Amino acid sequence: MKRTLLILGCYVLAMASCASPEERAADANKTTETTATAEGTSAAAPADNGAGEQLIAKADCIACHNKDTKIVGPAYVDIAAKYPLNEENVNHLADKVIAGGTGVWGEVPMTPHASLSKDDAKTMVRYILSLKK
């Protein structure tokens, strides 16, 4: 009984600490209205989706996110629908993954992932943004 309660408590704590990043409305408008630049074009090039998907699988992302369904945080396809795949959005969202945050998607903060490298975070974000339907 104690073991079950401990496991359930850990699960609830993990779910509460993993929320999707949200930004202020002004910040969201700024990133969604950006146009692809020469630098942004390289971000829009086909990404190594396998590497991004593998990095996500190794991280704790699946505790709060799913490809097609909102859990605690938004579904990856919803993120891809909101943010065009360009270098500005890739950098911005990679920073949010590393630093954590709250805003656009709700009030539950996303846990920071400070041990994640910027390059790995960018690879993960490129994969997510490539899922646009």
From TrEMBL:
The keyword Glycoprotein does not apply. Residues 1-25 form the signal peptide. Residues 47-132 form the Cytochrome c domain. PROSITE patterns: CYTC (PS51007), PROKAR_LIPOPROTEIN (PS51257). GO terms for molecular function: electron transfer activity; heme binding; iron ion binding. Keywords: Electron transport, Heme, Iron, Metal-binding, Signal, Transport. InterPro entries: Cyt_c-like_dom, Cyt_c-like_dom_sf, Cyt_c_ID. Binds 1 heme c group covalently per subunit. The keyword GTP-binding does not apply. Residues 28-47 have a biased composition (Low complexity). SUPFAM superfamilies: Cytochrome c. Residues 26-49 are annotated as: Disordered. Heme c binds at C61, H65, M110. This is Cytochrome c. It comes from Pedobacter africanus.
